[in-house]
Amino acid sequence: MKSIRSYLLAMLMALPVTIFAQEIVIDPANIVLDVGAETKINAYVMKDGKKLDTPVRMFSRARKSLSVNSTNTVKAILPGTFDVIAIAPGAERKTFKVTVNFPPIAEIKLDDIPNKIYAGTPINLTYTVMDEAGLVRDNPDIAFSSQNEAIATVNSFGMVTTYKPGKTSIEVKSENVVNTIRINVVKNPIERIELSADGDQARTGDVFHFKAKALDAKGKEIADAPLYYSFNGISDNVSRNASGLIKQDGRFVADQPGMYTVTVSCGVASASKSVKISARDVARKIEVVGHGSVNNKHTSDLWVWEGVDGRDYAVTGTWGADGMAYFWDVTDPANITKIDSVQVDARTVNDVKISEDGTICVISREGASDRKNGLVIIDVKNPREAEIISRFDENMTGGVHNVFIADNHIYALSGGQKYYIINIDDPKNPYAVSKFELDTPGHSIHDVWVEDGIAYSSNWSDGIQLVDVGNGIAGGSVKNPTQFASYAYPNNANHASFPYRSKSTGKFYVIGGDEIFPYGLNTQPGGVNRAAGYLHVVDFTDLDNPEEIARFEVPNAGSHNYWIEDDILYVAFYNEGVRVVDLSGELMGDLRAQGREIAWIVPNDPNGYSANSPFTWGAQLYKGHIFYADFNSGLWSAKLEPEKPKETQIQSK
After folding, report:
1. Quick check: helix, strand or coil at residue 10?
2. Fold classification of 105-186 (topology level)
3. Which residues are paired to 231 by β-bridges?
4. What residues does each domain of the chain span?
5. Residues 569, 552: contact at Cβ < 8 Å?
6. Shortest CA distance to 537 belongs to which of 578, 574, 567?
7. In what side-by-side order are the strands of the sheet with 159-162?
8. For residue 138, how many other CB atoms are within 10 A of its CB?
9. Longest CA pairwise span in the chain (Å)
């Protein structure tokens, strides 16, 4: 037996172990560039020690930092180290790194230094470090020092603490660049502080507005007093922290029921006020009502609408398959019935939308055999006999990922970089009237949503873009789309944007959602996935100064598409299903921690394309039912129980 094992082992060792006989070679292996420089990368394929003529293509996902064109020329835009991927037929893909040097520091800018600082009060130095390429240096090495520490000291984070009246210099140094400022510390006139609030009782998630006045010995208000807000809380639940959030303009919100004390101070003077917080108590039951199964391919987005015959219908797309779109009768949400389908030349029908009058459907195309990855317009006056009436492929070779219909115009993404606005007054003869595209380095776009003549696009690292396409706020129109506001958040993952004007407060928000796959995406049957990312609530009430004010995050899951109606958010969180969230009142802080989650439901299907592997794509409220599409199991409907009357809620506490 031993000799047989030895023989088999020898045979196995003799077998070839190379999966790819061809190898991509990058020469030189280490590429280092300065900002603004570019170089053509020498890449070729080797086989059995011989150089082949096989073409090598390259790309980088860090497009805002490093661009790679069709000739394999790399241009350095921002400093850092970035991956470039090289691919060639028959060879294993090769990932290599390109390093872009940080330019030397050129200048340190210091902003908003007050003419006088009251003794005993601190200030934070606000500074910007610029390099020789004109770029802002993130997280630079900074050294601070004070000429006279008896008057003021400065710590390693730029916080200046003052002690007594006098003048001193503060030095700020980075690399070989130094900026020195003079500060003037004066006697502190503040004797006491008065603190008031708009109430002393509320629920978790309700925002208080505290107002403070610093007064001198004669009772005169010191308008320029540097006030500092903080809070301390005792939770009703002994196992949980009494967490919350306070802003330095006096806004405060609590996460947990309990007693909270807000304190405002200025030097040795301070004042406090306590508030009692009760539970938000908005939870409701939710139940599955119906299911339209799709278990032989992945499902993408959905749209539900009322047909011209008065019945209710839905359309769903498919992903990475055979270009199918399905039409459903959902008049009875408990009996979702597939009534027709349309197949187009595509692998993915990522997005589906219906016109306001319920007569026209538009679907997107990606992965077409002829590379004409445009959009398809379908007559759905009778969804049981859906009929393709036209296609639009012009300038769409890079693929249409998302679309939107508004006022007889289609907004269609093109190549992941821009969107075209296409007139469909005559849906049999669509034509483009304009396009919108950013001019930033490596710009990209994922989605566009149009409401009240404003297009809200999600532009990954460039963030949320607000464009006037007929509203009039910036003089724009469908023929002249005009950008007038924007907001980009640091993680560069803005995937979807939805406008929301609060009925209860009048505030205007745009909710931006991330899309992140930290573990990659398994698209095979049986594949299980987990996403990441969350919703960013941005207050656009002041269009010139948008502020990211709140978030909604589900642990170990990531956000996708969503819907807002009557101050309630319905959001798909991929592997954690649909979440229903209370958006009433002013928003601030961690919405889930505040108990604003009303309900959640996860679509598990043992017969799904991937069994019992929820990966919910999108949700839509329609005539009292929540419809949602799942990547692995198709179309679902659910029902949320009615809200309890307010008097019942009070009595139940």
Report:
1. helix
2. Immunoglobulin-like (2.60.40)
3. 262
4. 20-100, 105-186, 192-278, 286-652
5. yes
6. 567
7. 122-124, 159-162, 152-154
8. 10
9. 104
**pLDDT-based confidence at 352, cuts 50/70/90?**
very high
**DSSP letters spanning 157-207:** TSEEEE-SSEEEEEEEEETTEEEEEEEEEE-----EEEEEES-SEEETTPE
- The pLDDT of residue 18 is above 60: no
Instruction: Please give the CATH superfamily to which domain 286-652 belongs.
Output: YVTN repeat-like/Quinoprotein amine dehydrogenase (2.130.10.10)
Question: Please, what is the average pLDDT of the chain?
Answer: 93
Average pLDDT of span 380-394: 97
- Among 195, 191, 148, 150, which Cα is nearest to 171's? 148
What would the two tokens of residue 569 be?
Answer: 């958010």
User: Is 0.85 topped by the overall pTM?
Assistant: yes
CA distance 83 to 65: 11
User: In the β-sheet with 31-33, what is the strand arrangement from edge to edge?
Assistant: 31-33, 94-100, 80-87, 57-59
CA atoms within 13 A on the CB side of 336: 26
Residues 6+ apart with CB under 8 A from 651: none
Q: Which two tokens stand for residue 268?
A: 């040795």
In CATH terms, are 105-186 and 286-652 the same topology?
Answer: no
Structure tokens at 584: 């009433």
**Quick one: which of 235, 234, 271, 236 has its CA closest to 250?**
271
Q: Which residue has the tokens 């006697």?
A: 187
Supply the DSSP string of 487-501, one letter for each residue: E--TT--EEEEEEEE
Contact 502, 510 (CB under 8 A): no
pLDDT of 447-492, one tens digit each? 999 999 999 999 999 999 999 999 999 999 999 999 999 999 988 8
599-636 per-position pLDDT tens digit: 999 999 999 999 999 999 999 999 999 999 999 999 99
pLDDT in tens, 412-443: 999 889 999 999 999 999 999 999 999 988 88
Share of the chain above pLDDT 90, in %: 83
Predicted local confidence at residue 283, as pLDDT: 97
Q: Calculate the CA dihedral of residues 435, 441, 446, 449 and round it to 10 degrees.
A: -50
Residue 334 per-residue DSSP state = T
Measuring CA to CA, how many Å separate 272 from each of 102, 133, 141, 209, 340? 47, 48, 38, 14, 66
**Which of 129, 194, 123 is closest to 152 using CA atoms?**
123
Place of tokens 């187009």: 344
Q: Which residue has the tokens 């003037």?
A: 184
Peptide bond preceding 28: is omega within 30 degrees of 0, i.e. cis?
yes
CA-derived radius of gyration, the chain: 30
pLDDT of amino acid 30:
87
Structure tokens at 546: 């948008």
Residue type at position 73: T
3-state secondary structure of 113: coil
CATH code of domain 192-278:
2.60.40.1080
Stretch 135-151: mean pLDDT, rounded?
Answer: 93
Record: fold of 20-100: Immunoglobulin-like (2.60.40)
In sequence order, the 6+-apart residues with CB closer than 8 A to the CB of 16 are: none
pLDDT in tens, 105-121: 999 999 888 889 999 99
> Is residue 14's pLDDT more than 50?
no
